[in-house]
Amino acid sequence: MTTKQEQRKKAAAEKREQVTKAHAATVERIENDAEYAAAFAKFAKKFPSYSAKNQELIFAQMDTATVCAGFNKWKAEGRMVRKGETGIKIFAPTSRKVKDEDGKPQKGEDGKDEKETGFIMVTVFDISQTEPASE
Fold first, then answer.
1. Given CA atoms 29, 30, 34, 38 in this order, what sign does their dihedral have?
2. Hey, which of 17, 19, 22, 134 has its CA 20 to 30 A from 58?
């Protein structure tokens, strides 16, 4: 593995740890502070398509968020993320093929490639971090 890859992996692990700590602190505050819990409940209603954990993650990182989407989704909607904006980290489901020691896909009993599912950290941006794309 190259040094650059190692640096990226280390930075990603550090960011994941930072986001996880912020999430834990937010969850604890929601559980112990009725006023904060009410504010979160109101906030969460704006994000019905997100999981409870992702709602908490968004709230922990930007409690003023109203509409979130990824970079390419905003681009497709005719908006661009402003330069220098810091994204909001959430978790998205993903799957990948299971491979053997030789790097070949493993087959299941049905003869199809086996897949494993998990979650990866992705970045979304609030609409307040975007502006209309110029033609």
1. positive
2. 134
Check: CB of residue 15 under 8 Å from CB of residue 89. yes
Contact 90, 57 (CB under 8 A): yes
**Which pair of structure tokens corresponds to residue 125?**
């941006």
Q: Looking at this protein, which amino acid is placed at residue 90?
A: I
Q: What does the alpha-carbon distance between residue 25 and residue 20 come to, in Å, rounded to a whole number?
A: 9
Q: What would the pLDDT profile of 75-112 be if each residue is shown by its tens digit? A: 999 999 999 999 999 999 998 888 888 878 887 788 78
pLDDT in tens, 18-58: 988 999 999 999 999 999 999 999 999 999 999 999 999 99
Question: Amino acid identity of 79?
Answer: R
Identify which of 50, 61, 48 has the alpha carbon closest to the alpha carbon of residue 15: 61
Q: What angle do CA 67, 73, 77 make, to 5 degrees?
A: 80
User: E-assigned strands of 37-98?
Assistant: 68-69, 79-81, 88-97
- Token pair 């975007």 is at which residue? 130
Gyration radius from the chain CA atoms = 19
